[in-house]
Amino acid sequence: MLRIAGGKVYDPANGIDGVVKDICIADGKIVANVDGGKTIDATGMIVFPGGVDVHTHVAGAALNFARAMTPENQRAASAFMHSVERRAGIGGPTPTTFATGYLYAGMGFTTVNEAAVPVISAKHTHEELRDTPIVDKTSCLLMANNEILLDLLETGETERAKQVVAWLIWAAKAYGIKAVNPGGVAAWKWGKDAKNLHEPVEGYSKVTPATIIANLARIADELQLPHPVHLHCNNLGAPGNVATTIETMNVLNGHRGHLAHLQFHAYGGDDWHTMRSEAARLAEHFNRQKNLTTDAGAVLFGNAVTITADGPWQHLLYQLTGQKWGNLDVENETGCGIVPYTYKGNNLVNAVQWAVGLELLLLIDDPWRVHLTTDHPNGACFWRYPEIIHLLMNADFRRDCIKKLPAKAQKRIVLQDIDREYTLYEIAIITSAGPARALGLANKGHLGVGADADVAIYQEKPDGELLFRYPRYVIKGGEIVVEEGDVRSVVDGREFVIRPRFDIAIEDYLRPFFQQYYTMSFENYPVELDRLEHAEVLECEQA
Amino acid sequence: MIRFTLKRQPTVPLEAECLSPDVVCALSHGEIRSLPVYHGKRRLRLDEFFDVDGEASADLEIHGDLSRVKWIGREMTQGKIRIVGDAGMHLGAYMKGGEIEVTGNASDWIGGEMKGGLIRIGGNAGGQIGAAYRGSRAGMNGGTILVRGSAGVEIGMRMKRGIIAVQGPVRDFAGLQMLGGTIVLLGGAEIRTGAWMKRGTIISLASIPLMPTFCFACAYVPTFLRVYARFLASFGLSLPIDDSQGVYHRYSGDTAVPGKGEILVWHPSAG
Question: Does the first or last residue of chain B, that is N or C, have fewer Cβ atoms within 10 Å of its Cβ?
């Protein structure tokens, strides 16, 4: 039992905006009152629901490949030395599994969504997620270039496609559907990309990116998944791609959808020299489409590692930078590219990207529909979120930063004209309440009675960045895991898994494909539920 | 001066980056003795392996067979380390200034990614001198490394600036993927010298096997060599610059990259 006494509570899901009140915890849940037990004196502190990261890459084959590809980052990174409470690990742009848990918790985040899992490497991903302590986890499954699905869409067998999607989610013990560059990764296997939403995908005569997007969105809705289709739009990173992003919103046509890392999809111009921010235009469209949520995918200057299933884009990035390049072909399901990248303040393109992420966060008027992310580790490392919060809360500081950008870049952005400053209440929405709602996690992101007792307590200070960098206390499932900015005790996190309803006969349809095309036998393909150490299964009824 | 004497051989390599002028220059005798070293995964006190004599100085003298002691002089910026005996791996890695002198042999990766300062080896050195650590884009970015004896493979790998001069024979892949700087091979090298080099200069006073991707450009004595000759003469090394004694053949490459580097091979005049 625990009482957090005298703190200023920010709990947007319950409409509580900076009210001084006690938060009581028993058996890992928020309760109305407790009698006895430990008390934390939170006078002069602010109390937030634990942070929720709606889009991050913290586990799996691709991230591990990135870790192996960048030993230079790991040498420069801070080390977590082995101690009684903690295992050894390394921070940096792609932290090791245990360090990832410590770093998230050390910032006040208690739930993360691993946003890109191929079915065939789901086992590996779950094993790494199990070794990512403290935080609770969900994961999204890569579907938009799965050849079995694309073949079904080609022949118009949409009902069977739904059965396959439902089966795959349960087979991979995943939480939601991810679509990366729909059709583009399948086309990449022919050395092509899918830039136009309404042209057939290479290797197919009927199915287009639009078909894939519309069907996955429909399937997510019909299966009543708590999180809608999690969409990485076509043409990521390309100048002028705002048209594709807006067209994608039209294709979704009223279905629910989550547009991932919107910053990478909000550019105007015709090439790298004329690239400019189209955040204002995109935000205007987005504000009208109440069916959608998004996350920022903000960029900060410094070292990053770009990791995405978007193989063709990564090849282009490799050609642009001359950096190291990793390319993976994930059988019939997807692909993956990895390129280490440094965002530079004096580079026109990078400066525009930096501004676009902030512009979107400031111009999208409903904070419940835009979440704080950096598409870790693509735009910046997740442990740099406090820097973004500082930029959002302080317009003068923002303008000082803009002055350091190249003069040319300053003409391509609108950030200097935005006066809006985030309040603590709004920060609690974009870091916790909003993403929890978007993920459909009813017990996360709020401090009402019955919620999971995930709480972050910060010292109240004027400087936004410092405020959020070192929480005084972080409580996960009722246990105090961080005290005075240091991880004191380590608990295991849970994994949320969705079991959609499907017709078991779909296995008879799928089995022959495995005998014919896969390197893995059908029996070995699904992840057994026993492999997950702390799984929590949510049943989903079909509409 | 602070004198360290190795009193027992570590059973596994000892990581002792505290043996650096920057670390010990302001510490008392007791503080120096209690500095941490890693013996495998165990964190131990420095005085479990070393006798320490003296305190608060940037002038260090280390005695004993230190071939299993790694990271001596790591990131040092000032002062001097004199090692009487052999030195282990990563000697002077990332160093920015000061001087390291070894009377015996040194191991691999000495001066890895160093930015400045001087390292002198009296005996032989291992491979990857002044090199980029695995995954890094650039190796040494300044400073000087002089080896009296032989050296191993991949010396100056991806180096960007600075000078490496080796008096004895050098093994394969000298100047691999070199980006700039100078390697002076007074005793020649084995195969694949300058492979993938983009820029930079490799000077060999002995004839060496060249890769087919290096093209003969001209025979001359470059004027800029006088600057190098004067610099190296201050360390007792002689670089011929008198055109009555011979010429340098300039080979440009590595055209496989394609690169704009050069290999200068000294051809003494007949008779």
Answer: C
Residues of A whose CB is below 8 A from B136: 72
CA–CA separation, B212 vs B194, rounded Å? 11
Most A CBs within 10 Å: which of B38, B137, B158, B257, as the mutation test of the A interface?
A: B137
Q: Which two three-digit tokens encode residue B101?
A: 């002198």
CA A270/CA A276 separation, integer angstroms? 9
Specify which residues A468 forms β-bridges with: none
* Nearest chain A residue to B136, by CA: A72
Cβ pair B129, B158 in contact under 8 A: no
Rounded Cα distance between A185 and A311, Å, is: 6
**pTM, entire model:** 0.90
Which residue of A69, A70, A72 to mutate against B (max B Cβ within 10 Å)?
A72
Name the pLDDT band for B41 (thresholds 50, 70, 90). Answer: confident
Chain B residues in contact with chain A using a Cβ-Cβ cutoff of 8 Å:
41, 133-137
Closest CA to A483 of A491, A492, A474: A474
Would the CB atoms of B133 and A70 count as touching at under 8 Å?
Answer: no
Q: Mean pLDDT for chain B?
A: 96
pLDDT score at B237 = 95
Shortest Cα distance, chain A CAs vs residue B61, angstroms: 28
Map out the domains of chain A as residue ranges. Answer: 51-441
> What fold characterizes domain A51-441?
TIM Barrel (3.20.20)
Closest-CA distance, B236 to chain A, in angstroms, reads 36
Q: Contacts of residue B137 in chain A, CB cutoff 8 Å?
A: 72
Give the number of residues written for chain B: 271
pLDDT value of residue A78 = 86
Residue A543 in this model has a pLDDT that exceeds 60 = no
- Nearest-Cα residue of chain B relative to residue A68: B135
Q: Give residue A84's pLDDT.
A: 85
CB contacts of A73 in chain B (<8 Å) are 135
Q: Which amino acid is at A454?
A: D
Query: How far apart (Å, rounded) are the C-alpha atoms in residues B50 and A34?
Result: 58
Q: N- to C-terminal Cα distance for chain A? A: 40
Interface predicted TM-score of the whole assembly (ipTM), two decimals: 0.75
Find the helix packing angle between A61-69 and A122-130, rounded to 10°.
70
Q: Where do the structural domains in chain B lie, given as residue ranges?
A: 108-268
Which residues of A sit within 8 Å Cβ distance of B?
Answer: 69-73, 75, 82, 324
Q: Please report where in the chains the tokens 């590809």 appear, as a residue.
A: A69
Say how far apart CA A381 and CA A294 lie, in whole Å: 19
Over residues B174-204, the pLDDT tens digits come to: 999 999 999 999 999 999 999 999 999 999 9
pLDDT digits (tens, 9 = 90+) for A311-340: 899 999 999 998 899 999 999 999 999 999
Rounded-to-integer distance, Cα A319 and Cα A326, Å: 12
Residues of B within 8 A of A69 (CB-CB) are: 135
Q: Is the dihedral of CA B132, B135, B136, B138 positive or negative?
A: positive
pLDDT in tens, A113-141: 999 999 999 999 999 999 999 999 999 99
Going A90 to A96 to A101 to A103, the CA torsion angle's sign is: positive
Tell me: pLDDT of A61 over 90.
Answer: no
Instruction: Report the C-alpha gap between A63 and A288 in whole angstroms.
Output: 35
- Which of A29, A24, A14, A1 is closest to A454 using CA atoms? A29
Residue A222 belongs to what H/E stretch? helix A209-222
Give, in degrees to the nearest 5, the angle at Cα B69 between B61 and B34.
70
d(CA B159, CA B166): 15
pLDDT digits (tens, 9 = 90+) for B44-82: 999 999 999 999 999 999 999 999 999 999 999 999 999
The predicted structure's pLDDT at residue A314: 93
A325 and A339 Cβ atoms separated by less than 8 Å: yes
Q: Which amino acid is at A181?
A: N
